[in-house]
Amino acid sequence: MSDQRPATGWAKTRSAASIGALLAVLTAASYATVNALLRSVAADVDPFAGSLIRQLPLLVLATTALLVLRPPALRPRSPEFIGARFVGLLMAAGVISFLVGNVFLFTGLNWVGLAVATAASQGGIVLGSALVSAVVLREPPTRSQLIGIGIVAIGLATIAIPGFTSIQIDGFAVLGFVLSMCAGVCYMLSNAASRTVQRRPRTFITALALTNLGGVIALLVAVLIRSGGRLGEVYSALSPHQILILLLAGTVNAVALASVTLAVRYTTVTSVSALGSLVIVFGIFVAWIVFHEQIAVAVIVGAAIIILGVLITLRPPATPAGMPVEPVLDADSATIPGADAYTSMKEGTT
User: Domain EamA: where (predicted)?
Assistant: First the structure.
């Protein structure tokens, strides 16, 4: 019987990782769809106002789920209550992701352009996830993941090459590149916070809803400040077509956010982030098929390199025979390795 137990543990680990990988691919495809939908309206809509509208479908869905399900994770008298600290962590993650990350990315877009800023932000997600997973979550990337991440980074740099040739390399360009990478780190931190909280069972809806709520509040405050409190004027300037596109993009965006939140329950932030880089590949495919754009050779080569890197990160680590493997997460009750250490770090006790 003892010979069967390690195999069972390994099978659970691979099963959970496979579910997480599929959800991460769905996330990348959904974000690519969102980007395609926004192409027709992005230039004429305030980026923060547009971001706020895109969060509304998820806000409605998540709030409805909370009211109907009344999850024990948010009931202070329940033994499953996650606590005020984790409530604050999730809402802060929403602020960092939806507001701070967007501020960094929008600034980077202005200073280095779309191609460079997008590649740099994705690089921040991938590289930042490896560091945070190892240092904070105590889930160090495997050797295959480190090699794959390095290859993905090379692919992203290759895609950005045509963009570099069209900008003047000066202090603003360097700062724009750095800020774009920081934007990616901000987006990744939201996933890390979600994975930390989801070490407890039945916390998916709670993690998704609170992160969304924190982001919506931050975006609303940002829009109010930018408009001088004239919120009505900001949205009255939008046409029905623009609002419809933004809401449609928000619906697909809700699928993306739900998928990535659930993905980090089943597999590591490193894996999800590496797979998330496929959004670049899907975006290139959409640009070619839907918008009939001419794709530069460097971009095609970069996309191929990214796919290679992702495939390498998916390679399972070798496990000595007879050595038990702790499942990453199963569907009901598993803990994230190092989550308690993360909590202690947040409390300043380690």
Answer: 19-159, 176-314
Taking the CB of residue 348, how many other CB atoms lie within 10 A of it?
A: 6
Classify the phi-psi angles of 322: left when phi > 0, otherwise alpha if psi is within -120 to 50, otherwise beta: left
Spatial neighbors of 55 by CB under 8 A, at least 6 apart, are 98, 212, 215, 216, 219, 250, 253
Query: Residue written as tokens 């933004």?
Result: 246
How far is the C-alpha of 5 from the C-alpha of 1, rounded, in Å?
A: 7
One-letter amino acid identity for 306?
A: I
Residue 98 token pair: 């939806």
Q: What is the mean pLDDT of each run of 10 residues along the chain (350 residues)?
A: 48 76 95 88 84 94 94 94 96 95 89 86 95 92 95 94 75 88 94 94 94 96 90 86 93 95 93 94 91 88 96 76 42 38 35
**28/273 Cα distance (integer angstroms):** 10
Phi/psi of residue 117, each to 5°? -65, -40
Closest C-alpha to 165, from 298, 303, 42: 298
Cβ atoms 302, 173 nearer than 8 A: no
Gap between the Cα atoms of 33 and 155, Å rounded: 21
State which amino acid sits at residue 133: S
Contact 37, 248 (CB under 8 A): yes
Domain ranges of the chain: 18-316
8 A C-beta contact, residue 104 and residue 183: yes
